Amino acid sequence: MSALPNCPACHSEYTYEVADMYACPECGHEWSSVASEGESGDEKVVRDANGNVLQDGDSVTVIKDLKVKGTSSVVKVGTKVKSIRLVEGDHDIDCKIDGFGPMKLKSEFVKKA
């Protein structure tokens, strides 16, 4: 059989090459063949506001006042958050903030401490 990778969108095995791209006839998804050769999995790199790579267990500092949805309280600039956990989604940091409890943050509003 062929050594072409399965489609990352629908996992179909019927992919084919078009120039320097791969294409899926079932869902129409196209992706670069160069990028998939060097990948080591579906790892997403999460970066802070300054471009530093974040990892699980890092400590970060909030760089902007953040309103807490559903309350009238605000997470102030300079609040230090310890032991973050990276998750998938729009809010890619899962953490616990003293005085607020469990919370999800966007990486664009924090910097590595």
Automatic annotation (TrEMBL):
InterPro entries: YjdM, YjdM_C, YjdM_N. Residues 4-32 form the Protein YjdM N-terminal domain. It holds the Pfam family Zn_Ribbon_YjdM. Residues 46-113 form the Protein YjdM C-terminal domain. Belongs to the YjdM family. PANTHER family: PROTEIN YJDM (PTHR30305:SF3), PROTEIN YJDM-RELATED (PTHR30305). This is Alkylphosphonate utilization protein. It comes from Billgrantia tianxiuensis.
